[in-house]
Amino acid sequence: MKISVIGAGYLGATHALCMASLGHEVVVVDVNSEKIALLKSGILPFFEPGLSELFDSVRNTKKITFTTDISSISECEINFLCIGTPQNREGIAADLSALESAFDSVLSVAKSGSTIAGKSTVPVGTAQRFARELTATRPKITLNWNPEFLREGHAVADTLEPNRIVIGASTPSDARVLADFYRSVSPNAPQFITDFPTAELVKVAANAFLATKISFINAMSEIADVTGADVTVLADAIGIDDRIGRKFLGAGIGFGGGCLPKDIRAFLARADELGLGESLAFLQEFDLINQRARSRAVAVAVKELGNPKGKKVAILGAAFKPESDDVRDSPALEIAQTLAALGADVVVTDPRALGSAGEKVPDLTYEKSVAQTLQGAELTMLLTEWSEYRSLDPERVIGLVNTPTLFDGRNVLDVKKWQKAGWKLLALGRSL
């Protein structure tokens, strides 16, 4: 099938390359000419495990093209809207301006009988508003809302083998083309054909629930710090209950990235617009808990260092999570910035995110080598749980630092192993 993907960012490029690998003819359109030029030359503008190999396998075929010309989609059967909806600079609501512009552009050139499938995360009510515009101007085009559920670091598998497909439509029959398309992609994935509001809510509700679990265990971490309890054992004990589950109960410096923080804030803003602010008021507190986790990490570092001015702090990790170069709202990078502002000599390393971190925060010192990062450190802070850092040999690296003190911001290290090697370990929610 000939399809288009509007937006060549993380979501759009991943979706496009995966669909091309399955044999679909894909036209990728983006208004950013520099991004399109990179893709045309075979360069992915971001890191995602397995995607570069997929790109190499399809980019020299006739299955995928990259362009800034929206008219190139005029013969496509399905047009996927994969446009970012960032937080509005003037508040916490989602900024839909780029998505609205893209929708209008697609509407102007899409052929009659085609389907527009929105994959962007949007406030509930957005799809219905778009549907009214479509009915008034292009009634022979069908609108579906098809939220994505990609996990950075697992996006290829999540696209090719999704654990569910959600399609919002005005009527079940309007979802038929997209439902059939996805059956060819993943025949065994459960499909949920819903109305527009339900499809929109599935995405933001899922993110809100994950944020709730993380924030809850970090709230327990605050209690554990005061009472002397161990939050990791607590998480293990409550997580064994299958009604709760252990996933997303990892206490530490909190969540970041381009989805969870801005999505829960946009959800709060939309609830206020609907007169339902009290219904989601708990999410506001969870957002504050998440931000406090970063401040708590800084406080631990300052307490350990005394006056941090001029003291070297080695930061292991800049990305908001491992297997990603994404530093949007990264707890690691914010903690590094704060310590640098307090006068510490902060050196940051990361296997993938040094480029994006340097663009976002150019006044920090970045180092590719872990050994050079650790050299002479008075405090080491593991802030992104890359496997490279989790597997460090504490006996081999202890000779590099001035002071063998390590803050495990993700509670992932083998405490006894590091302590046996002579390290002092610090963490949130644990008395080590």
Give a written overview of the molecule:
This protein has two domains: 2-194, 3-Layer(aba) Sandwich (Rossmann fold); 196-432, NAD(P)-binding Rossmann-like Domain (Rossmann fold, 3-Layer(aba) Sandwich), CATH 3.40.50. Helix content is 43%, strand content 13%. The longest helix has 32 residues, at 196-227. The strands form three sheets. Strands 3-2-1-4-5-6 form a six-stranded parallel sheet, sandwiched between helices. A six-stranded parallel sheet has the order 11-10-9-12-13-14. It has a two-stranded parallel sheet with strand order 7-8. The protein contains 17 helices and 14 strands. It is α/β, with parallel strands linked by helices and 432 residues long. It starts with a strand and ends in a 6-residue tail after the last strand. Helix 13 links the parallel strand 10 (345-349) and strand 11 (365-366).
